[in-house]
Write a structure and sequence with these properties.
Length: 159
Amino acid sequence: MLVESRKVSDSIVETVHMIRPNHLNSAGRLFGGMLMQWMDEIAGIVAKRHTRMNVITASIDNLRFLKGAYQRDIVIIIGKITYVGKTSMEVKVDSYVEHPETGERTLINRAYFTMVALDVNDRPTLVPRLELTTDEEREEWEKAEKRREMRKMRKEEGF
């Protein structure tokens, strides 16, 4: 049986959002739950593109709010596969505020989503292998393996 594989570049997703009043919390910043929703959607699309099947979010690691975003800010969210296992994959999702005058992007959030591929009966199923084509992709894979081990340890310890 031939095992299918895809490149990281085959499933990268980038979206653009303009922060509007309905996206703000009571402090006048982008509501964290709104950003998390957008990030989860991106992770799902990345995983769906990689597997070409239904997926679910199993966990979110290292969700870090580094800086705020405010009304009229432009938020760019980029997701890409960093690791694949047997039935799951890790998707790195970075969020940036893009400065309109310079185009410079400032990282405001990063998270790692564990996504699981599902067959037609909603059971976990094998995912395509990941072709690593750059040194950066190989480095991301190695870091993802460490995060995977940490997730296993936390699970064993009940965290």
